[in-house]
Amino acid sequence: MVEQVFKSVDTLRADRVPPGQRATEEWPVLHYGATPQIRPEQWTLSLTGLVEPQLKLSYREFLALPMARVFSDIHCVTTWSKLGNTWDGVLTSTVAGLTRVLPQARFVMVRSAGDYYTNLELDDFLQPDVLLATGHNGKPLTPEHGFPVRLVVPRLYFWKSAKWVTGIEFMDRERLGFWESLGYHRRGDPWKEERYQAGAEVHIRPRPAAGT
Ligand SMILES: Nc1nc2c(c(=O)[nH]1)N[C@H]1C(S)=C(S)[C@@H](COP(=O)(O)O)O[C@H]1N2
Ligand SMILES: [Mo]
To answer: Is position 155 within any domain?
Structure first.
């Protein structure tokens, strides 16, 4: 049962398409590597690092948490945007509220099955429209879109919305995630076009072979 419904603030803008983006009706599937096939009865969500106590939730425990619904837009850094998505899941603030986040914690690393990980400021992670989603537009997530649980961070580029999430690590210093280490922006605000770290573009282009 959905107990809370939120509209992400960016859906209230007169023009909802950020600079350099164009709206599409499709929902492209985009990720690095193969789609992990996760059996829910084996899935767990770990809260580690600067939390007391550290926790590991089973799928059953996760689904027993209060559910929320969030209405939001998607902005992929590759320039497609998909407006008007309804997500069902558990708010990150609900999950964080199961433990005590220590005052030194200022960043998180979100980890996925299949070695993907992405960094967020704790404040961005805990915004009221951020959730660990199990459903999209009234249907359960499909494996390629992140089943059983994906993060959705409506206000940042979609690479921050990690699919197949298995863990959240709370940290006092910022460490960079998978794409962020390869030159994507550390934060990724689509309204400021924070696509790539200044001067880092060279790392994400194919490089000439040594000696040429
Ligand atoms: N685990 C994982 N999550 C991921 C990625 C990935 O490679 N692995 N790619 C990100 C990127 S770049 C995008 S644009 C979105 C795409 O999500 P979708 O396939 O549901 O559209 O997932 C994000 N989350
Ligand atoms: Mo992306």
So the answer is: yes
Distance CA 49, CA 110 (A): 12
Find the CATH number of the domain harbouring 67.
3.90.420.10
Q: Is residue 135 part of a domain?
A: yes
Number of domains in the chain: 1
Q: Which ligand is nearest to the CA of 159?
A: 1
40: phi then psi, degrees, rounded to nearest 5:
-55, -35
Q: Is the CB of 136 under 6 A from ligand 1?
A: no
Q: How far apart are CA 64 and CA 57, in angstroms?
A: 10
Res 120 pLDDT > 60: yes
Express each pLDDT in 59-95 by its tens digit: 999 999 999 999 999 999 999 999 999 999 999 999 9
Kindly report the protein residue whose alpha carbon is nearest to atom 13 of ligand 1: 159
CB of 76 sitting under 6 A from ligand 1: yes
In angstroms, what is the span from residue 210 Cα to ligand 1's centroid? Answer: 31
